[in-house]
Design brief:
alpha+beta; 2 domains; 47% helix; elongated
Amino acid sequence: MKHAFYLFWVFCLGCCCTHAEIVVYFSPSGGATDAIVREIHSAKNEVLVEAYSFTSKPIVEALVEANQRGVHVEAILDKSNERDKRSGMWRLVSAGVPILVDWKPNIAHNKVMIIDHSVLITGSFNFSTAAEKRNAENLLVIHDDPTLVASYLANYEKRKKLSDVFHPGDKPHEQEFDPEVWINNVLWLLGGAVLGFVLRSFLSWKARGHSGSA
């Protein structure tokens, strides 16, 4: 309880004293990808990435370019990327960017970039084509909030310790069995089958009715 109280006052103090610059973007087609690419291009020392879906070619290429000009780029990705040939993970691997796989959670759903320990990018926005063009998402680009950046850095290091370094040719991590997910999938399949049966029966009945009345 005392620890929680202390953290509350640290948070309040940080909120009162910070002069953070925060810019928000909304998708689809709200400029989020361009904003991320601009921040990567401005990186001088380091870009740390946490991602789930990772198919945005502009973002991936900006990371490759940053790596080529000497910026330390590192990414912690969800294990689904190991099986997805569309994933930008493969492009980063070929460019020599260190990749880690956050395989222990059911889904590693973080969408975060920490740039030069001073810029934080986060939100619901996946680093993907779908997030930019088709999905309703949000993205925050936060400058000059050291307290918040420190919290995200601590979590990044925590996830990194729990992740495996990816090497080409490694066997993909297996999806852990989740009874709730399995039940939901079965119900979804059964629901689709029942709906299909009802629709086919209705169309068949309607066709017979029309042929009979003719």
